[in-house]
Amino acid sequence: MIDARELRKEYGNFVAVEGSTFSVDRGEVFGVIGPNGAGKTTTLKMLAGLLEPTDGEATVAGFDASDPEMRKQLGFLPEESPLYEEMTPISYLQFFADLYEVPGDVAEERMLDTLEKLDLEHHDRKLGDMSKGMKRKVAIARSLINDPDVLIYDEPASGLDPLTTNYVIEFTEQLAEEGKTIVFSAHNLFHVESICDRVAIMNDGQIVARGDLEELQDQYGERRYRVYTT
Ligand code: ATP
Q: Are 148 and 73 in contact (CB under 8 A)?
């Protein structure tokens, strides 16, 4: 469902990502973990077609990542979602439903269903008056408005309290059970171990290990593995 081949991104003379190659099967949850500056966001944005690779290529759902058609199959959750403070969750989601040309009755049912699943009762509250956790849930609802097959979530749990973090992780787990293909980045192993089928560990712009968690522990040993993930 996702295929990244030798992705490379340079910012001037600085190489942010180099030789990033991995694939994600339909219905799989793939974790990209690593410390600050490892190149996770850059990699995810290249997959989502938001950054043009300097070299290499990515396909998502059979489309080149730069193909606008690909966007219709994709729900991207950026690390920091720009939310319009004066909007309510419904007006915000309606705005994106219109952008994706989701028919009115389908959009309404999808919005209400997703907001209910996310436990967001305050439909009439302005986004600017919401907590960080509530805003993150609205951003997650936005990523689902076009009912995409593929979700790319950049550190969806970062900066949230433990309860909301668990909530976001469990919700992502449900989406995986519904058959979505998910790429999920995190600093912390704790955020990915319960839901990821496989992970890639990034450091200094490169994938330094990949596989399922047990394989990585065998391959790299518990100590080194933890260095990258805590
Ligand atoms: P974090 O966990 O802090 O979000 P990350 O793993 O997502 O980190 P990236 O945001 O992909 O890392 O950044 C990788 C490297 O590229 C960092 O050193 C960052 O400073 C650099 N970088 C990212 N965007 C730019 C840019 N627009 N111009 C120059 N350098 C950039």
A: yes
